[in-house]
Amino acid sequence: MILGTMPGVASLDAQEYYAHLRNAFWKIMASLKGAKCPTVYEEKKQLIHDMNLALWDVCHTCVRPGSLDSAIRYEEPNAIAELLKENPSIRTIIFNGQPAQKLFHKHLKTITGVEFVTMPSTSPTNTMSFEKKLESWQILLNHLE
User: Which of 5, 26, 49, 144 lies most in the core, judged by the most C-beta atoms within 10 Å?
Assistant: First the structure.
């Protein structure tokens, strides 16, 4: 399962995960799968399904002017512990960036039996090159086997 913090403005407006045109998430996932990057959201969801992944966010609600993770306040977490109890096949949580990891551990300190991996954020605010992001995300392939 890949966890972000909370969808940004572009994603909320589009009602799609990682909808900002400069977010590298879908391009990275397609590259890892050896596929062409999908442009239609149904195809994006199918890509994640085919990779045996799930997407969600740490935050269920929060106050955040704009899209910066650093601006998140008054957050309430999603029911991740309950989801993991109901789905014991989820063995790895991959954080899309350190802010997701920090928010998760702030609110969900007692979760055990799951491996945690923090990846560089795919957000355009992370100035790491696409190639470096992709190289870092290659570790994901080890968790998909």
Answer: 5
